[in-house]
Amino acid sequence: QQSNESLGAQQLLMRGTKLRNTALVVGIVVYCGGDTRMIRNSQSAPAKMSSLEFFTNNSMKLILVAQGCLALISSIFFSCNKWYFSGLWYVHLRNDLWLWDIPAYWLTFFTLYSNLMPISLYPTT
């Protein structure tokens, strides 16, 4: 004699569930793909940023790119006009740089232009 039993939410065991004090278990595996509770809960929550924070972060990126471009232009102009600056008595140029002229002066000018970005514009993530 066969009997039909319907399965509902009461008979469903989630992944990772431990079943105890049971002598015999008959079961089937149900796979729902990416719609399972564990898969949906394993994703990180999206960051909640206000429009002001979003605008500030984008402004900071723009200022950083502008600062890098200004430092590059300044280092190229300085390298091209190094002969002029070497004739000035109050400018002491160094010959023992660890890098080539343009990258070394780029780092120098990038540091000098670091005041373009105020402390209040540091990123919020």
Descriptive notes:
The protein is mostly helical. The protein is 42% helix and 0% strand. The protein is built from four helices and no strands. Helix 2 crosses helix 4. The longest helix has 30 residues. The two termini are 64 Å apart. The mean pLDDT is 79.
Which SSEs are present, and which pair or pack?
Blueprint: H1 37-42, H2 51-80, H3 82-86, H4 101-112
List the quaternary state of the chains.
single chain
Number of strands: 0
Q: What's the pLDDT, averaged over the residues? A: 79
* Largest sheet composition: none
**Helices and strands: which structural class?**
mainly alpha
Which stretches of 5+ consecutive residues score pLDDT under 50?
A: none
Helix content: 40-55%
Give the strand content.
under 5%
Q: How big is the Rg?
A: 32 Å
| N-to-C span | 64 Å
